Amino acid sequence: MLSSICSDSITLLSIDPGINHLGLCIARLKLPDYKFISSEAITFHAKEKYLNKETVEKFSMSQAKIDYMSQNVLSVLYKEKPVTVIAESPFYNHLRPAAFMPLVELLYQLKQVVRVFHNVNFVTYPPSIIKKAVGASAICKKDEVKIYVNKLKEKMRLSSDWNTLDEHSIDALAAMYTHVQKAFK
User: Fold this and answer.
1) Does the residue 2 lie in any domain?
2) What is the pLDDT of residue 1?
3) Residue 76 lies in domain
4) How far apart are CA 111 and CA 60, in angstroms?
């Protein structure tokens, strides 16, 4: 991962939240013009072998996954020391209504994790805003977002191998780009 904040740059963290797959992007921006120095993206996968069995038994599989994802984000926060955490806000999908509540719970827990770091901002953007910010239609599918983010990878100075990125890490890159465009332009 990238090094933490220094006097001539800032570090940002963006998240595509999900209890099964959580995309994450770390970016460093040069001050004072907020141009990308570097960015990288990864996805955490909540496989059963990684989950706390006691949490699964006493609470639920969903809670164990939320805890696992939160711990991964916490580790990145300690290592990278971002000034802002950006997340895609959860949305209600009528085709998968049961997925909404765990996303809300995950986002709430992530906010609590970020609160430990008193000088870190937490910002969310709806998926439609993120899609439009990268140049896609507000109602497009994941494949279209991937095409548009691919066009931005040089501007974002992406160090991750594009061919290894999945839809979750690509969505985290899109959330990062959205924040940089909205907050610093």
Assistant:
1) no
2) 43
3) 9-180
4) 20
Q: Does 4 have pLDDT greater than 50?
A: no
Give the chain as a 3 state SS string.
CCCCCECCEEEEEEEECCCCEEEEEEEEEECCCCEEEEEEEEEEECCHHHCCHHHHHHCCHHHHHHHHHHHHHHHHHHHHCCCEEEEECCCCCCCCHHHHHHHHHHHHHHHHHHHCCCCCEEEEECHHHHHHHCCCCCCCCHHHHHHHHHHHCCCCCECCCHHHCCHHHHHHHHHHHHHHHHHHC
Q: Would you say how long the chain is, in residues?
A: 185
Torsion of CA 158, 160, 162, 166, to 10 degrees: -120
pLDDT digits (tens, 9 = 90+) for 121-144: 999 999 999 999 999 989 888 889
6 has pLDDT over 60 = no
Ranked by mean pLDDT, which of 1-5, 97-101, 139-143 comes out on top?
139-143
Assigned domain for 50 exists: yes
- Domain with 21 in it: what CATH number? 3.30.420.10
- Residues 8, 145: Cα–Cα separation, whole Å: 31
Residue 19 located in a structural domain:
yes
Domain total for the chain?
1
Within a domain: residue 129? yes
Average pLDDT over residues 10-25: 97
pTM: 0.92
